[in-house]
Amino acid sequence: MNNYIQIYNNIISDDYCDELREKFDSFPFNQDVEQGPMSFTQINLNSHPEWSEDVKKLSHYFTQSVEKYKEDCAIMPEMWPNSYAFEEFRMKRYLPNGKDHFGPHVDAVSKETAIRFLVFFLYLDDNDKGETAFPQLGLASPCKKGSLLMFPPLWPWLHAGNKPIDKPKYILGSYLHYK
To answer: pTM for the full model?
Structure first.
């Protein structure tokens, strides 16, 4: 893609994607979110010790992807913070119920969220619809199992999580924070 939007395929195995989805579906602490332009079910993995090994494993995959992202986007040292941290990892499920989606938005819209400087969306299943769309750029990232979408969370990257139509969509997301 372009405009600091990158997609990396096969970041995690199909089996690990399946394992994460099954664990999510069987986990008792999922939270429904419905407010304004968004509707989905999510869990904050960092809040539950049962997910600690997954958080470690995913942190490793994301850290490797950061280095690739910096290389692919020709990011010079002067463009990158000296230190950063991951935001808590959240896994989301969007049902094909005609309601679950995340309308057009940006992820850094306040003093509190301005700490974010890079988005991670890891797709955990193939889904014909439900892509992440960038309406002002005329781009969309397909939901491809094991692929990772990375981009800045700021105002030029308005994006939306479109509605899945025939099966649930699962993503796992985080952000890099300035430290």
So the answer is: 0.94
